[in-house]
Amino acid sequence: MVKKIFVFLICLFLAFLPSLGGLAVSADVLQNWYASLSKPSFTAPDWLFGPAWSVLYLLTGIVLYILYTSEINPKDKKTLLLFFAAQAALNFLWTPVFFGARAVFLSLCIIILMTALCVDFVIKAFAVKPVLAYLFLPYVLWLFYAFWLNAGVYVLN
Q: Which of 21, 96, 114, 130 could form a disulfide with 90, with the two C-beta atoms 3.0–4.6 Å apart?
């Protein structure tokens, strides 16, 4: 039981790791640069992003735990873990690129690739273990929303 809890906590830690990309962003950037940008009319209030991402990281941590501990075909498991790791790396990069480097177009390219990887993850996961796909789907839907926000900021600025 202790081993399962430890593995679960490691999976949660790994799922939340991309949020550390935000450490590269100063409050000044948010208050000045980001606040000065023209944003699409469908932009959510700033206070919503933290809780939304927290729930999504929690869900992806659960996905990672189920994936890691499930007895599924090793080849499928390896593929899904690779997709998970790749999207997490891109997720980590997005915040410093968008906010830190202020590279809106490059961040748009990153989120397109990240979303494509996540859609592919859901498709592959559904064929292997559907619960993984269902738990990952809110993250994918949020990424589509984030993509449109990023695209809107690019077009409007």
A: 114
Q: What is the DSSP string of 44-71?
A: PPHHHHHHHHHHHHHHHHHHHHHHHHS-
Q: How many CB atoms lie within 10 A of CB 127?
A: 10
Q: Which of 114, 48, 49 is nearest to 84 (CA)?
A: 114
Tally helices (H) and strands (E) across the chain. 7, 0
Rounded distance between C-alpha atoms, residue 125 and residue 146, angstroms? 22
Cα separation, 133 vs 76, in Å, equals 14
Both tokens of 80, joined, read 């899904």
Please give the Cα distance from 20 to 91 (Å, whole number). Answer: 10
- The pLDDT profile of the chain, 157 residues, written as one tens digit per residue, is 889 999 999 999 999 999 988 777 777 777 788 889 999 999 999 899 999 999 999 999 999 999 999 999 999 999 999 999 999 999 999 999 999 899 999 999 999 999 999 999 999 999 999 999 999 999 999 999 999 999 999 999 9
